Amino acid sequence: MRKGHLLGIVPLIVIGCAPKEPVPVEVAKTLYPPKASPSHTKVDPFVLASGETLRRAPALLTNGLIGIRVEPNGTGGSPPTLLVSKMMVGKDTRYNVADNGFPKTRGDSFYSAQVWDAKTQNLKALPNPLEGSVFYNGFNVSRLGSSVSNYRQSLDLHTGILTTAYSNAYADVVVETVIDPESACGADRWTLTPNHVPEDAGDADNPHFKGSHEGNVVSKGHVHPRAQTVAITFLDVVDATANGAPIPRPVGTPVPPARPVKVDLSFSAAIDSGSIADLTTVVGEAPEGKCAFTRRFAVNLPGKPPESLRSFEEIVKRSKAHLDQFWKTNIEIEGSDQDAQAINAALFYVRQSIAKSNAFPGGPFGVTSTTYGGHMFWDADIFLFPALALLDPEKAATIPSFRLQTAKASNGAIRFPWESGPQGQELAPSRFQNEIHGSGSVLWGLNLAAQLGLADPQKVSSVASGVAAYYQKLAVKRSDGKLELQNVRSPDENWVGNNDLYTNLLADWATGGRKWAGRFFLPRDDKSLLNYEQDPVMGYKQAAAFLAVYPLQYPEAEKQALTMLNRFGPKLSAYGPAMSNCLMSIAFARADERGAAYEQWKQAVYPYLRPLGLFSERRHAFGDTYFTTGAAGSIQAILFGLCGIRIDTVAQPGALWQTPLKEGAILSIKPHIPDAWKRVKLNGITILGRKLSLDITNQAVTATVGA
Q1: pLDDT per residue over 570-616, tens digit each?
Q2: Strands 229-232 and 133-136, bridge-based pairing
């Protein structure tokens, strides 16, 4: 299930007006609780660090155009690793083909880009341009073995630089990796400090610096198109002429300790429809007693101009400048550095997952994994768009823009693909095409976009008519006069049958002119609304009924919110994605159960976090990263739950701040800040093109325009 956003179409119902029921003691199990930081360790909210050398999820750098994985040793992995047919072969294969027919990869040692298979329209996994090993005097200093000490890998969110540092018997190693913020290129810089002087210093076969392209590596019958080994020895020296051509010095010639040395190795390798424009290794310019080299790469993307190589220093400069502007918009938490760090990680990765220049926003993993083929689902409209709409409206707008551009009517009806490819085509296996809540969810997101000034209201109105016609054609009249939808798959995904609550509510809203019409049957018993007709209330992958509380804000569901939380919350699978906990956090917050709301937010975040702030699709250790849907849900839980933002046709009673939107909507704020936080500052958000900052406590909301 993927979570949603609030829209203001119906009269506001205040949950708190109803008698409160007991808050459930346990609503979900946490299998992997957050590791508490030692009391003496200060958490830096803008530095994500790990001391683990064995990790299932390698580090990640992405800008929406490319997604580069960096192993714990600082390389892109040891070749070969490439997607062949429909399986990942190489050093760390854990999945072959998923049950939906799409390749499942762990994300290890490969990179993805906006490169699509022409036949399947699946996102391709491509060989990592930063693969390779580094040797000193025949010893692989990039191998993390038992002799490694002082290990740390960290991502600085202010600079975008991923730094990997460790020591072994031969050298202290520091690797800095960075990608350009807006183009498909990147670089890394290796700095080695030798702590061992080899005895064979006069060996003519060991120049001071030596770089080599070792050629192709064959494994399991597949030829890897490019493998790179950089061999470094601290023996003799190679001078460089003015034009950069290397000239070997006679063996035994004294070497000035700080002499700058450069050796350039450049080559190109075609990789299907995406090609490495160039990969250059530059060695030299190191301080005394150290060796340094950089590797640069650029990727030519289909449909875009050829990419240019940039130096490591230039990319670092561009990355810092980009992030200086990036962090002028943020969610600032006072009271918990650990929570602040988790929020910053989500903001960083989620916002970086979309490139403004892309017409296709991408799937739940962006270009960080080939899971689900990189295709787009209703996640984008219900979870990702609302999370970004106030924080990064330009990137958020790519979602409704793509939907409007690819909306296609058939006999007046518009059905959006359940699983959309980059051209807007339906790519879902047939058994998933009965998840017809997708079209209503897209319309819900478009309606919100129109209210926030991020979509043309006339175009949205045209799409609304088509979606209404689509549901009207599917509806069947019951004996009681109500309409129903038969044989649909619930957002719970484990259930197929008649009258899913969320699907029927969307159909009722769409066919009622984007208002509640009361024409569709809603499943309920004598206690509350149900997830679907004949719901045994026994267990759920995802509790679809919570979507009726948020984002739909259906009045009856809001009145019954605490009852539904008590009934369905404890029955959630411990192995499901984070969105159910996000929805529960919002529902608890709006019922003014601040403590329970905060606990649910933590359960929606920490069990899914992996080293370096990577968000997993699954609560257990085997989920793929980076799962933007779950992370975006955690952002929404803060904005529309704990901070108390609501978008509706009227301001919520007790609101401390409000502002009009378009299409007759109003954004109002009634805070539910937990005791663990003193305040929340929404810095540099955008509402209808106006920049402002909001300082939010439970007592007051202070707006500063232009901040």
Answers
A1: 999 888 899 999 999 999 999 999 999 999 999 999 999 999 999 99
A2: parallel
Q: Do the beta carbons of residue 225 and residue 129 sit within 8 Å? A: no
Closest to 677 (Cα-Cα) out of 345, 347, 340, 329: 340
Enter the pTM of the model: 0.83
- Range 15-34+327-705 classified under CATH 2.40.10.10: no
Rounded to the nearest 10°, the torsion over CA 96, 99, 102, 106 is -40
Angle, in degrees to the nearest 10, between helices 437-451 and 398-406 = 120
CA neighbours closer than 13 Å in the CB half-sphere of residue 29: 9
Weakest-pLDDT range from 6-10, 37-41, 430-434, 587-591: 6-10
The reported pLDDT for the residue numbered 260 is 30
The answer to whether the CB of 463 falls within 8 A of the CB of 401 is: no
Q: Which residues contact 700 (CB under 8 A, 6 or more apart)?
A: 656
Relative orientation angle of helices 628-636 and 579-590, to the nearest 10 degrees: 10
What tokens were used for 508?
A: 């009722």
Check whether 317 has a pLDDT greater than 90.
yes
**Alpha carbon distance 212, 223 (integer Å):** 19
Residue-wise pLDDT tens digits, 411-448: 999 999 999 999 999 999 888 889 999 999 999 999 99
Residue 30 tokens read as 């946490």
CA 528 to chain centre: 35
Q: Helix, strand, or coil here: 383?
A: helix
- Residue 578 in contact with residue 604, Cβ under 8 Å? yes
Three-state SS sequence of 447-499? HHHHHCCCCCHHHHHHHHHHHHHHHHHHCEECCCCCEECCCEECCCCCCEECC
Residue type (1 letter), 587: A
* Cα–Cα dist 542/442, whole Å: 19
Q: Is-contact 576 619, C-beta < 8 A?
A: yes
Amino acid 459: pLDDT: 98
The highest-confidence range among 97-111, 354-368, 381-395, by mean pLDDT, is: 381-395
CB-CB contact of 552 with 607 (8 Å):
no
Give Dmax over CA atoms of the chain in angstroms: 98
Contacts of 479 by beta carbon, 8 Å cutoff, 6+ apart: none
Cα angle, residue 214 at apex, residues 211 and 219 outer, rounded to 5°: 145
Residue ranges per domain, the chain?
A: 15-34+327-705, 47-324
Within 8 A by CB and 6+ apart from 180, the residues are 63, 186, 310, 315, 318, 319
Helix (H, G, I), strand (E, B) or coil at 353: coil
Taking phi over 0 as left and psi of -120 to 50 as alpha, with beta for the rest, 10 belongs to: beta
Q: Using alpha carbons only, how large is the chain's radius of gyration in Å?
A: 27
Owner of token pair 């009271």: 335
Structure tokens at 73: 């040793």
The DSSP 8-state label assigned to residue 524 in this structure reads B
Q: State the residue for tokens 């298979």.
A: 117
The 10 Å Cβ neighbour count of residue 671 is: 23
- The alpha carbon torsion through 489, 492, 493, 495 (nearest 10 deg) reads -60
Residue 420 CB neighbour total at 10 angstroms: 26
The residues, ordered by sequence, that sit 6+ positions from 146 with a Cβ below 8 Å of its Cβ are none
The highest-confidence range among 87-96, 269-278, 306-315, 671-680, by mean pLDDT, is 671-680
356 closest CA partner among 65, 685, 61? 65
Report whether the peptide linkage leading into residue 606 is cis, meaning its omega lies within 30 degrees of zero.
no
DSSP lists the bridge partners of residue 104 as none
Tell me how many degrees the CA angle 57-62-63 measures, rounded to the nearest 5. 165
Please, how many CA atoms are within 13 Å of residue 144, restricted to the half-sphere of its CB?
Answer: 20
Classified as helix, coil or strand, 157 is: coil
